[in-house]
Design brief:
Elements: E1 4-7, H1 12-23, E2 29-32, H2 40-49, H3 54-57, H4 77-86, E3 95-98, E4 101-104, E5 123-124, E6 130-132
Parallel strand pairs: 1-2
Antiparallel strand pairs: 1-3, 3-4, 5-6
């Protein structure tokens, strides 16, 4: 199974998502999107496939969102995409693409919706929160 993660190694959610993919026995294609941002076509496709609005896919915290005036409701999706491509830190993360779908994996366990069922034991996030039980089943 080919899986691609648009990853920011400085983000705990992104690191946890990458660990969950690897826990499933999959070595994904890892794209450091801050250095290699997706094309306009790829970004808009991921947003659409993840069933998000452009505003849901834009990151506010720790970005130039406010300074760029991106909270202006009159801005079009195209203008917001332009800003995301010019400043990739505005792209919320991590986006994961698999043959089973595309997800913005926030929280990280959303990636489980687009991975095959796991049978490999428990999984714990970096902060110690358990996500999978001893049978590899997602905890509620």
């Amino acid at each position: 199974m080919t899986v691609t993660i648009y990853h920011n190694p400085d983000c705990g959610t992104s690191r946890n998502t990458l660990s969950l993919i690897r826990h499933a026995g999959i070595e994904p294609t890892v794209i450091a999107y801050l250095e290699s941002p997706p094309s306009r076509e790829t970004l808009t496709s991921m947003i659409t496939e993840a069933v998000l609005t452009v505003r849901e896919a834009i990151r506010e915290k720790g970005t130039p969102f406010a300074e760029l005036g991106l909270d202006d409701p009159s801005l079009t999706d195209e203008q917001l995409i332009d800003a995301m491509l010019a400043h990739p830190i505005l792209i919320n993360r991590p986006f994961v693409v698999s043959p089973m779908g595309t997800r913005l994996s926030r929280p990280s366990e959303l990636v489980l919706e687009i991975l095959p069922a796991m049978t490999k034991g428990p999984f714990f996030k970096e902060d110690g929160e358990q996500v999978l039980d001893s049978e590899g089943k997602r905890l509620a």
